C-alpha cells in the first residue's frame, strides 16, 4: 500500500476550542492533515497556528481570499489553477487544484493543466460524476496526470452521489485522500469514511489486492468492513441510486460485493438470478454471479427460535431467505406485509424491516417473541420499538450476520 495522506476538513460549525478538539479526534483516529477552507470559516474563526500544532494544516482558497496568517501556518496552500490570480504559496507548499464544473474527457482535463507549475507542487483534479461509467475516464485522466507530474504528486477525485466507489478505486494511485469523519456533514459528496480508510491502510497487502465492498442504504453501522479482508469499501447509496450501473462499472475493479437493503431484489433481477433476492456478488471473469448467503443467517435464526411455526414482518430480501430455509426444514412460515398487520400479534416472529422504515401505527404484540435480525445500533432501536409495542425482542442479528458472512468469505475466495 503506497503512502497516502489522509485529510479531514473542519466543519463550518466548529471554531475555537471545538475546532482543536475535532483535529485531535481526527489525529487519534488516523488522520494526517486537517483542512480549513475560506468558504467554510471566516479569517478569525479559527486559530491556524494552534491547529497546525495538532497536525499539518492545509488551507484552501474557495471563493474568498486566503488570510495571510492562515498561509503562514500552512503545510500546503490550495490554489485553483483556473480561478486564482496567482499560484502564490511559500516554496514547497503549493497544492494546485482544479474543480471542474462538469465531467470532462481526458483530453479536456489535461488542457486545464497547461499552466506552468513549480516542480514541488502537488496536483489535485476534481470532477463531478454524472454516471458510474465516468470512472473509466477519471482513471485514464489519473494515468495521464501521473505520467506528466509523477506518481507522488497527483490526486484525482470524483464527486457526487455515485462517486464513493470511484474514489475508492482511484485512491490506490492518489497521494491525498479526502475523508469524512462520520455523521451528517461531509465536505464533498462521495467521501469515504476515515475509519474505513485507516483500516484499509493498516491491513491491505498491496495495491493490486482485489477490492471487496458492501452496497446498501444507511449502512454506517455495518460490521462487514471490520471482519472481511481489506480493501473492503462501505458503498452507501441512496435508495433510488442506479445500483445496477454502479456494479457494472465496478466489475473490473472489485472481486465481489455484499448486498444489503434495499438492493437485494433489484440486483437479483439485474444479474439474472433464479432467486428472488441475493446478498452476494462474485466476479466471474466478465460477469457477476449472484448468491444468497442470507440462507445461512436465516437458518441460524430459525434454529435459535426453536419453533415449528414462525411469522415474518415484512417481505423484502431477508424474507426470501427465511422462506427457503423454512421450506427445507418443513417449518410453517407466514409472511405478513404492512397492510396486513392486525393487532395484537402472538407467537414467534421475525422482524425484517430496516430500522429506518417506520412500522404500522396499529402494530401491537401480546406475549410474542420477536427475533431482530438487524445488529448494532439499528438492532437496538428495533428492539426498543418491539418493547414499546408489547413484544419480547430476541437480538439475533449478530448470529445472522456471522453465519452469512462466513459463507460470503468462502465465495469471494473463488472470484476470477
Automatic annotation (TrEMBL):
Region described as Disordered: 205-226
Gene3D superfamilies: Leucine Dehydrogenase, chain A, domain 1 (3.40.50.10860), NAD(P)-binding Rossmann-like Domain (3.40.50.720)
InterPro entries, per database record: Aminoacid_DH-like_N_sf, Shikimate_DH_fam
Domain of life: Bacteria
Coiled coil: none
Molecular function per GO: shikimate 3-dehydrogenase (NADP+) activity
GO biological process: chorismate biosynthetic process; shikimate metabolic process
PANTHER family, sorted: BIFUNCTIONAL 3-DEHYDROQUINATE DEHYDRATASE_SHIKIMATE DEHYDROGENASE, CHLOROPLASTIC (PTHR21089:SF1), SHIKIMATE DEHYDROGENASE (PTHR21089)
Name assigned to this protein: Shikimate dehydrogenase
